[in-house]
UniProtKB/TrEMBL annotation:
The keyword Hydrolase does not apply. InterPro entries: ABC_transp_permease, ABC_UrtB_arc, BCAA_transport_permease. Keywords: Amino-acid transport, Cell membrane, Membrane, Transmembrane, Transmembrane helix, Transport. One of its GO terms (biological process) is amino acid transport. It holds the Pfam family BPD_transp_2. CDD domains: TM_PBP1_LivH_like. It comes from Halarchaeum acidiphilum MH1-52-1. NCBIfam families: urea_t_UrtB_arc (TIGR03622). This is Urea ABC transporter, permease protein urtB. It is found in: Cell membrane. One of its GO terms (molecular function) is transmembrane transporter activity. The lineage of its organism: Archaea, Methanobacteriati, Methanobacteriota, Stenosarchaea group, Halobacteria.
């Protein structure tokens, strides 16, 4: 087992899980809506980036376009469909699942089953007989930056205070002058933009096809479920835990066993920790304060 190779695998897995899950976690944790079309939102970001890059737009700007396209789509969907489904968990699941199917088939009809792909930038890092994509290492830094940015947004700004007040008690927040409708819309747009960012960032590393969203959805839901009620802390902890498990078993036994080990870990966490990893952190914190 090469320690450096294991470190790179962990960083790659951590970035993939965190970036896949964070948009879903924001929408679910802040709004109580389970977006089963989350994978297709990621797909839209990837398509927006790839099509823009193929049209000659520089890759960083193409990524911005992919994020903006997804954010605008999220705004339209929230104003026309999603806003009618708050506090209707099962209805929101069915509706967003249907939206995902429509997006997948719509892209397939409009653009076909494949489009020209873009190459992965930045080359590779060589170490001994091993090498690793520099771009994937950069993605792990981006994942940490996204988490830090969301922490500042939701805990250190007036918008974050209003958003958390809306989620905790919308009636009281409305009585205090908070435009809760606007907060719901803004939060959904942020979650959609984060999904688009994930698609934009991974567009150079994956084959961009209509069904690509499913490769992100499983990890995203597993991370959100075992993370617990805290959006940012839960996503960080679940990304770290699942990233370590996946990297360790992938390095020893291959990708298939890494995925199996990750899912088994999720099952154990769900079985033993009813409030997820953040619930465990809160329990430990309360015990330490009690002493």
């Amino acid at each position: 087992m090469n320690p450096l190779n294991l470190l790179f695998l962990f960083a790659d897995n951590f970035a993939f899980i965190v970036l896949s899950a964070v948009g879903l976690a924001v929408i679910f944790g802040m709004m109580g809506v389970i977006n089963l079309g989350h994978g297709e939102f990621i797909m839209i970001g990837a398509y927006g980036t790839t099509l823009s890059a193929n049209a000659g737009v520089p890759l960083p700007l193409a990524m911005v376009i992919g994020v903006l396209v997804t954010a605008v789509m999220g705004f339209v969907l929230e104003r026309t469909i999603i806003r009618r489904l708050y506090d209707r968990l099962l209805d929101s699941m069915v509706a967003t699942w249907a939206i995902g199917l429509i997006l997948t088939q719509g892209v397939r009809i409009a653009l076909g089953n494949s489009i020209p792909q873009i190459s992965t930038p930045l080359g590779t890092i060589a170490y001994g007989e091993f090498s690793y994509s520099t771009y994937r290492v950069v993605l792990s830094v981006v994942a940490l930056a996204v988490l830090a940015g969301l922490y500042v947004l939701f805990t250190r700004t007036e918008f974050g205070i209003r958003a958390r007040a809306t989620i905790q008690d919308p009636d009281t927040a409305r009585a205090l002058g908070v435009d809760t409708d606007r907060m719901y819309t803004s939060t959904f747009v942020i979650g959609s933009a984060l999904a688009g960012l994930t698609g934009a960032l991974y567009a150079p590393t994956l084959t961009v096809v209509p069904g690509m969203g499913s490769s992100f959805l499983v990890e995203a839901f597993v991370a959100v479920v075992i993370g617990g009620p805290s959006v940012l802390l839960g996503t960080t902890l679940s990304g770290g835990l699942l990233g370590v498990i996946d990297a360790l078993f992938t390095n020893l036994y291959g990708t298939f066993f890494g995925q199996i080990a990750m899912l088994l870990t999720a099952i154990v966490v769900i079985r033993l920790l009813s409030n997820g990893l953040t619930g465990l952190v809160e329990d430990v914190r309360n015990r330490m304060e009690g002493e």
